[in-house]
């Protein structure tokens, strides 16, 4: 009997060359596929809700794969964690319907970007935040973040390979942003964004642009102009990967 299984993963992306399997380098997808093979004896390529880049982390990446293995889903959590490196943990495993797919069934994702604002960044955090101790008008960034809520063409904030961030059937760079909030959390300034989808490097390019607003190089009003330009060169530089976290992925139903 073939079953469709859904895994929820957390991982530290620092030592991996992103999600997608590549020859001769460690990736999240490749490492997970190897672990599934060791546990079930099958050759599978698990499909994620999206491709995180090298150095990007996840608290709730969702993965699906099919298997003929009779191992109960709840037992797979321990079995996989026993063979996976400590940097990747399976948090949950459930059986879902055959038509459920981690990527195409997703309805919303939440990303978080962490900026450490103090003069010295503790070694325990340096892999997980962008250390930016320089002056920033955080209130201006908060106002700038609010501008992108709603439906917009995010071409200005997409990497040069926009096709990479599209779901099957999509033919534009228009995305809906449900919430976009920057706030001070102790020693960190944290940007959290929830939307129906994201283009390649979109969140990191937004953060790089918001920082320019905070530095005074751009005005809050310039965010709307950059969106309308639909030109990557109009926006700011790409923020470092290490500060970005995929927080969770939402679905209308569990697919069960």
Structural features:
Alpha-Beta Plaits; 256 residues; 2 domains; ten-stranded mixed beta sheet
Provide a descriptive summary of the structure in words:
By secondary structure, the chain is α+β, with helices and mostly antiparallel strands. It folds into 2 domains: 3-104, Alpha-Beta Plaits (2-Layer Sandwich); 108-250, Pseudouridine synthase I, catalytic domain, C-terminal subdomain (Alpha-Beta Plaits), CATH 3.30.70. The chain has 5 helices and 10 strands, in the order E-H-E-E-H-E-E-E-H-E-E-E-H-H-E. Strands 1, 2, 3, 4, 5, 6, 7, 8, 9 and 10 form a 10-stranded mixed β-sheet that branches. Helix 1 packs across helix 2 (73-83). The longest helix has 14 residues, at 202-215. The protein is globular. It starts with a strand and ends in a 5-residue tail after the last strand. The relative contact order is 0.19.
CATH class of the largest domain reads Alpha Beta
Radius of gyration: 19 Å
Q: Give the full name of the CATH homologous superfamily of the largest domain.
A: Pseudouridine synthase I, catalytic domain, C-terminal subdomain
The CATH architecture assignment of the largest domain turns out to be 2-Layer Sandwich
Secondary-structure map:
Blueprint: E1 3-11, H1 28-40, E2 47-48, E3 57-67, H2 73-83, E4 88-96, E5 106-116, E6 130-131, H3 138-147, E7 150-153, E8 174-185, E9 188-195, H4 202-215, H5 222-229, E10 244-251
Parallel strand pairs: 3-10, 5-6
Antiparallel strand pairs: 1-3, 1-4, 2-3, 5-9, 5-10, 7-8, 8-9
Helix pairs in contact: 1-2, 3-4
